[in-house]
Amino acid sequence: RAASAALVGGSVAIFGALRRLALALPQPAAVRSRPGRVWRWRNLLVSFAHSVLAGLWALFSLWHSPELLSDIQDGYSVSGHLLVCFSSGYFIHDTLDIVFNHQSRSSWEYLVHHAMAISAFVSLIVTGRFLVAAVLLLLVEVSNIFLTVRMLLKMSNVPSPALYEANKYINLVMYFAFRLAPQAYLTWYFLRYVEVQGQGAFLTANLLLLDAMILMYFSRLLRSDFFPSLRKGSAGRDVDGEKFLID
């Protein structure tokens, strides 16, 4: 447990260093001209780095040890354990970044999500159970790569509709493949095979709440990118008001 805590702390430090690096990177004029966007741009760059690293790591872990999928409750791999510690550090760092930069009001949904992820991951690290479920959930980071690119393109006002259009459809496919599909499978698995008591009950409740959040985000995404005529009350809003998705 002490070693795992050290790994989580090291991950927090790594993302703190990435945050400082993001400060030194050049910013698009559309970002520099709006003070409210500077923090959000930097925050999204760090989120993008986590998505690339964690998404590819989750894919590698499952590809390297496919037998883990046959034992979601008690399967264990060193790679999966390290990945959960790594992502726990990111969620802790991002929570602190949001709170200390006074962005809690505009990003409260992500604070709720991070609290759920941190508490669930800590329980997995302590007990050593359901680590495979966490790795499956972290496949969502593959989808988040394209979701974050979507937001960065919106913020930077890139004068290339073709680039946004291409990412829009790739993002939709990745959303189904790496967010909705793993989430649906795990929800089915937990409701059918996991005892609703103790840690199992806690993780099942977390999973069901996450289901609701994911469906809400998917609805926003569809309205914004594919059915703009269905958007309501969004006139005059811009990306400063949301972290990843806008209505």
Describe the structure concisely:
By secondary structure, the chain is an all-alpha fold. The chain contains 9 helices and no strands.
Task: Please give a structural write-up.
- This protein is mainly alpha-helical.
- Helix content is 75%, strand content 0%.
- The protein has nine helices and no strands.
- Helix 3 runs antiparallel to helix 4, helix 4 (78-100) runs antiparallel to helix 5 and helix 4 (78-100) packs across helix 6.
- It is globular, with a radius of gyration of 18 Å.
- The protein starts with a helix and ends in a 22-residue tail after the last helix.
N→C terminal distance: 42 Å
Tell me the helix content.
over 70%
Contiguous runs where pLDDT drops below 50 for at least 5 residues: 234-247
Largest sheet: none
Total helix count?
Answer: 9
Number of strands: 0
The whole-angstrom Rg is: 18 Å
Essential attributes:
about 250 residues; mainly alpha; about 0% strand; globular
How is the secondary structure organized here?
Blueprint: H1 2-24, H2 29-32, H3 35-64, H4 78-100, H5 108-127, H6 131-137, H7 140-156, H8 161-193, H9 198-225
Helix pairs in contact: 1-3, 1-4, 3-4, 3-7, 4-5, 4-6, 5-9, 7-8, 8-9
